[in-house]
Amino acid sequence: MPPTRSRKSGTALPTRGGQSRLSFGARSRITKPAFAHSTQSTAKKHAAALEQVEEPEIVHAPTEPHSQVAGSTTADAAVESQATADKVRRATHGETSQEEAAEAMTNDQLARYWHAREAERKAPRVHQEGLSVSDKILRHFDLSSQYGPCIGIARTKRWHRADRLHLHPPIEVLAVLLKEGKAKGDVAHQKAYVDELMSSRYIIDQ
Predict the structure, then answer these.
(1) Distance between CA 97 and CA 95 in Å, rounded?
(2) Tens digits of per-residue pLDDT, 25-57?
(3) Predicted TM-score (pTM) above 0.90
């Protein structure tokens, strides 16, 4: 006889024409949680509580009209102070050997120096047609990063600092600075051109 399969008690027999239905009972029913809607009285309580909250008082600090800054900026004041201290030092202690050699240089020597710098380039400089040889030498010194930063420091002080650090700054730069100082009598030439651009102020008419 063929072996018969034992059936466990409780299993439903398949009905004709379809599969058996599985019943998990009433406890396994999954329903969405129902939230009770707030009643009209609860809404009135919330509205009354909001009315009792006092709005914070906003205190406006008194404002003063903006005053225009007169005089020089911080960078201008620093450069002017350094240049003035250098003039006092030369008048009190005399000039150094580098300064004496710089004052002895002629304009022809400065021109030859600049022509030598121009010969090192592959292409001529642009936007410098209206500048003098002295201005070109000073701007070239400003952009020479091997002598240290040029912002917030006088050109003469930057030159002496580079000389103390044995960076061998060009003596022609010091010659131009001394000649410009004697010719103009001010310290406007002591400020680097890059520093002048960064501290410029533009007023836009509204």
Answers:
(1) 7
(2) 666 565 655 555 555 667 777 777 766 666 666
(3) no
The separation between CA 132 and the C-alpha centre of its own chain, rounded to angstroms, equals: 33
Q: Mind giving me the DSSP string for the chain?
A: -PPPPP--TTPPPPPTTSPPPP---STT---PPPPPPPPHHHHHHHHHHHHHSPPPPPPPPP--PPPPPPS--HHHHHHHHHHHHHHHHHHHH---HHHHHHHT--HHHHHHHHHHHHHTSSS--SS-TT--HHHHHHHHHHT-GGG---TTS-HHHHHHHHHHTT----HHHHHHHHHHHHHH-SSGGGS-HHHHHHT---PPP-
At 110, which amino acid appears? Answer: L
Q: Are 137 and 111 in contact (CB under 8 A)?
A: no
Residue type (1 letter), 191: K
**142 alpha-carbon distance from chain centroid:** 21
* pLDDT in the model for residue 186: 72
80-119 pLDDT, tens digit per residue, is 888 888 888 888 888 888 999 999 999 999 999 999 999 9
Tokens of 167: 């960076």
The residue ranking higher by pLDDT, 182 or 166, is 166
Tokens standing for residue 179: 């000649």
Burial 56-88 (b: 16+ CB within 10 A, else e): eeeeeeeeeeeeeeeeeeebbebbbebbeebee
